[in-house]
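Sharing a chain and its predicted structure for anyone who wants a worked example. Both blocks are below, sequence first, tokens second.
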Amino acid sequence: MHKQILIKKIRSPAPGNLDEDIDYLCRSLGYFSKRDKQDTAGNIFRLIVKEACEPDNCLTSDEIAEKLNLTRGAIVHHLNSFISSGIIIKEHNRYRLRSVSLQKSMEEIRSDIDRIMDQMIKIAIDIDDKLGHYYR
């Protein structure tokens, strides 16, 4: 499965507001766009973080749509985007956070990035060797 992990450097929120903290993580992963006038991505992410961390607490797209009073199509569009970045997983047509906590989910994404970068560096070294480019 191909993953697209986008990390944006943005200003951290002032401490003490749970929704702003969750939004910060969502924005840092590239999910809030000016086109999303109803804040659909943010609403979905906040809901999943608050209600669907444990495997027993997964939500269907219909349940998410009902809780947020949005169309299932809009929900599925954003869920697919979250899945492609690896923060949300789908099991048996139910969605949940990748791990049992948001912290653990972020740590797992960091590990994904590290593995990808390690592979890229190995290939870059091979290319440099073939081209005679050396770095000390």
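Comments welcome. Residues 123 and 129 are 10 Å apart (CA to CA).
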